[in-house]
Specification:
Number of helices: 20
Strand order of the largest sheet: 3-2-1-13-14
Shape: elongated
Strand content: 5-15%
Radius of gyration: 27 Å
Distance between the termini: 47 Å
Subcellular location: Cytoplasm
Helix content: 40-55%
Binding site for Zn(2+): 143, 146, 156, 159
Family: Belongs to the class-I aminoacyl-tRNA synthetase family. MetG type 1 subfamily.
Protein name: Methionine--tRNA ligase
InterPro entries: Anticodon_Met, Met-tRNA_ligase_1, Met-tRNA_synth, Methionyl/Leucyl_tRNA_Synth, MetRS_core, MetRS_Zn, Rossmann-like_a/b/a_fold, tRNAsynth_Ia_anticodon-bd
């Protein structure tokens, strides 16, 4: 059986991320990893903070901190938020780690050895006011393609087009704001992607045919336009240094590798960090080097697709070493905020730390995955969020759990009642639940998250329909044993919901499961036969009524959220 390697795009170190970042990579990766583990597969989920490059230096400058200290603080701050969202990383590393430095420099040496790195003199923007060459992201201006006036020198955040700093209109320094810029000659290392284009095309032809259209179309667009040789070094004080044993002149000048060269390599570096915590039982190379039994799935938003489907595979291919390359790329469109783009740099939208201040993580986890921007951009609105939480979580699932357990305790005490033997209604319910569970599993296997959420919601709804049909509050008046059967069956549904809902809402799933005092309850998933029989919780099992799982969002709540974060004008 294949082992599963899962990575999600590395979040930048420069501040707490917004909900768009969460749903575009880390959260769906977590949901999928949890599902794999529950269904008996070995899965390793690796992520890290992306700590190099201009964003880190600029953010540290703004915070008046040394960049190393700033990154260390921000790593802990981000990790605390991800812990709050119950993201089940096996390891959450740092791209500034010694392990990443070592492996990045190894990759560079191998590419040089194989003729895929070349030192070239280029003309680069120099800031007279700052007295230094400016890396691409230190230059801001107007995008020549879409007119966005805060485009960076490497990529326009608005239209996602890759840029050269000299493309910008009215360019200025991001450090000083000065427009006193001139172009001077300097030396950098270039990755000769043009020499690797044929190999990358062949690799995508073989491995990319089953990718989502979003991922494969972006990759093929880049290949159709032709791979250009790309500078992989920058003039920065913070980053993986160019190794002096290979490029002594550039090392003496303080050149570091471009963040998009070392950041994907950090997936490997973080795995090595993970393994170093238990070297006797963990082998990082078995996941990355000659790892033929590993299925590797990456999760990312669409702006990260070119780097992961073209640039990083080209880098791996060029080493002429058997590094593991991605098998499946799950790409996402944008989550927008009332139709406007979430933006870390412009502080527009809901940020993950603020989200957790308002409501528990499960509210956000469920809503985001149920509305994941898989086939198109998805707009977040507070009205839609409240309607989904109230209908699906509070009314459909939460109310079912509360009324079943409360009514049974009131009428039959603190143990699961026995009642009659299962009848036709229970047999039909079991058949329906088994079918819905199979549908849910299929969508999860295919990484179709919105469809999986629909199937999960249908599972919850089936319990409500059964309860309404049997009406134990009426049944108990004429057939107490029949009512006991209905409630026992419903309690078995609650246990099933606890198990299969865990990838989406882990805290609530744990609360449902802990309601039953079952000895040896180690089940991680539910088989089709178990779903049909619904006998997880036998009669006589003690139970408690947990606190309300999901509180409804009121009109007053909604008004306060809109006042704090903004609403229909598209601005936060």
């Amino acid at each position: 059986m294949a082992r599963h390697l899962i990575t999600s795009a590395l979040p930048y170190i420069n501040g707490i991320k917004h909900l768009g970042n969460m749903v575009g990579s880390m959260l769906p990766a977590d949901v999928y990893t949890r599902f794999l583990r529950q269904t008996g597969r070995e899965a390793l989920y690796i992520c890290a903070t992306d700590e190099h490059g201009t964003p880190a230096e600029l953010a540290a400058k703004e915070a008046a901190l040394p960049v190393a200290e700033f990154c260390a603080q921000q790593h802990e701050a981000q990790k605390a938020v991800y812990d709050g969202f119950a993201l089940s990383f096996d390891y959450f590393g740092r791209s500034s780690s010694p392990e990443n430095r070592e492996i990045t420099q190894h990759f560079a040496r191998q590419l040089q050895k194989n003729g895929f790195i070349e030192e070239r003199s280029i003309r680069q923007v120099y800031s007279l006011a700052d007295g230094r060459f400016l890396p691409d992201r230190y230059i801001v201006g107007t995008c020549p393609h879409c007119g966005y006036d805060k485009a960076r020198g490497d990529q326009c955040e608005n239209c996602t087009r890759v840029l050269d700093p000299t493309d910008l209109i009215d360019a200025r320094s991001a450090i000083s704001g000065s427009g006193e810029l001139e172009v001077r000659e300097t030396k950098h290392l270039f990755l000769l992607q043009s020499k690797l284009q044929g190999e990358v095309e062949a690799w995508i032809d073989e491995h990319g045919k089953d990718w989502p259209v979003l991922a494969s179309s972006i990759a093929r667009k880049w290949l159709t336009e032709g791979l250009n040789d790309r500078a992989i070094t920058r003039d920065l004080d913070w980053g993986v240094p160019v190794p002096a044993d290979t490029w002594p002149e550039l090392a003496a000048e303080g050149k570091v590798f471009y963040v998009w060269f070392d950041a994907p390599i950090e997936y490997i570096g973080a795995t090595k960090e993970w393994a170093s915590q238990d070297e006797a039982n963990r082998d990082w190379k078995s996941w990355w080097y000659e790892a033929d039994d590993v299925r590797y799935t990456q999760f990312m938003a669409k702006d990260n697709v070119p780097f992961h489907t073209v640039m990083f595979p080209a880098t791996e291919l060029g080493t002429r070493e058997p590094w593991k390359k991605v098998d499946y790329v799950k790409a996402f469109n944008w989550l927008t905020y009332y139709g406007g783009k979430f933006s870390t740099s412009q502080k527009r939208g809901i940020f993950t730390d603020a989200a957790l201040e308002i409501l528990p993580a499960d509210y956000w986890r469920y809503f985001l995955i149920a509305n994941a921007p898989e086939s198109d951009d998805t707009s977040f609105t507070w009205e839609h969020f409240a309607a989904s939480v109230n209908k699906d979580l509070a009314d459909t699932l939460g109310n079912f759990v509360n009324r079943v357990l409360s009514f049974s305790r009131k009428r039959f005490g603190d143990n699961v009642p026995a009642g009659n033997e299962e009848g036709e209604a229970e047999a039909q319910l079991g058949h329906q639940i088994a079918e819905l569970l199979a549908e849910y599993e299929r969508h999860m296997e295919e990484l179709q998250f919105r469809k999986a959420a629909q199937a999960l919601r249908a599972l919850w709804s089936a319990g409500n329909s059964y309860l309404e049909t049997k009406a134990p509050w009426l049944e108990i008046k004429t057939d107490p044993e029949g009512a006991a059967l209905t409630l026992r069956t419903a309690m078995n549904l609650i246990h099933l919901y606890a198990v299969v809902s865990e990838p989406f809402i882990p805290a609530s799933a744990a609360a449902m499961r802990s309601a039953f005092q079952l000895e040896g309850d180690t089940a991680t998933w539910v088989t089709q036969d178990e779903a049909r029989s619904l006998t997880f919780v036998p009669a006589g099992t003690p139970f408690t009524v947990p606190p309300v799982l999901f509180a409804k969002i009121t009109e007053d709540d909604l008004a306060s959220y809109v006042e704090r974060f903004g609403g229909g004008d598209g601005e936060a």
